[in-house]
Amino acid sequence: MDAAAASKPTLNLLYFKNIPLINRSKLSMPDSIIHTNGDRELYNSSIAVKKTLEIFSDNWSFAVLQALFSGVKRFDDFQRHLNISRSVLTRRLKHLQAQEIISRTEYSLRPKRYEYRLTERGIDMYPIFLLLKKWGETWLDDAQTDNLELIHKPCGHTLEVSVTCDTCNQEVTARNVIARNI
After folding, report:
1. Which among 47, 93, 111, 140 has most CB atoms closer than 10 A?
2. Mean pLDDT, the chain cut into blocks of 10 residues (182 residues total)
3. What dotted CATH number matches 56-120?
4. How many angstroms separate the first and last alpha carbons of the chain?
């Protein structure tokens, strides 16, 4: 690390090639990043994050996923709810199918019509969706959804989303997690 980067504060900063990592949609995510914590540099592979973001790199794929989480299953319903063209919707559905996020099931023979359902891979995106929703409602002025309440079915209470440690049950934040090479 050069002297300029070494003089930066060392509280969980992310650097790529000694440059602070900037999150802009036009920049691609590097294959690996350097996680600086104190005097240690840890090379942390971000391949899983990069590949996940590639699947949902366009606005429409995530919008389709969100509609599926809301119960939309049929092509015409996606079009109506998302105000999306047939060609774009067709491409996004095929893309999500190829990534095994959704599956397609025929529900009518004449005319041929299909329903789209989340696969296990798609269902596993739900916690990420909830965390993004929470972040947006917390930090973006125009992203409040006061008219939507999520209820956790097993206990019947309003859902408060957080990431917790399975061992100690404390909330996980960037300030209380460190990475280490294994």
Report:
1. 93
2. 39 36 38 47 64 89 94 96 96 97 95 96 95 89 79 92 93 87 72
3. 1.10.10.10
4. 22
